[in-house]
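Form 7-S
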Amino acid sequence: MALIQELNKIAIELLNNLSTALIVTDASIKNNVTTFITHIHVWNKPIMKTLYHTLNVISTEAELVAIRCGINQATSIDNISKIIVVMDSIHPAKKIFDLFSHPFQKHAVFILKELCSFFYHHPENYIKFWKCPSHCNWHLHKVVDIETKSLRPTPIFPNKLF
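Output:
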């Protein structure tokens, strides 16, 4: 319950803060097709929604790509100095800052490059990652979660499905 209250507080503060971008992301895998959706909430802009489908990737890689896309979009908005990323698992976010070699390193490098530029521009800029499991039913994450699970992507090669 405390998590929901904190996330609600962040969402309310967003309404009064021109410099904060709230990124809410989720991924779902059905029949080897991964769907990941990113919603970006900024005070004076409509919700920016990004939807991707990809084949044969695991959810960690999909979440990293969703984070990458969200950060890329948020940092391209003028005057954004705070980025808050809300996702159902914090594990992919930890991979961004893992300096050891791992299969997702190429995504981490792209994200870190974008963040270096973001921090270099203004040293007081910051990013924060929040874990919001689907079972918490926080309203902004729930919308993204429902969208990822309800989409029925059309496979490219339907005869290859078993």
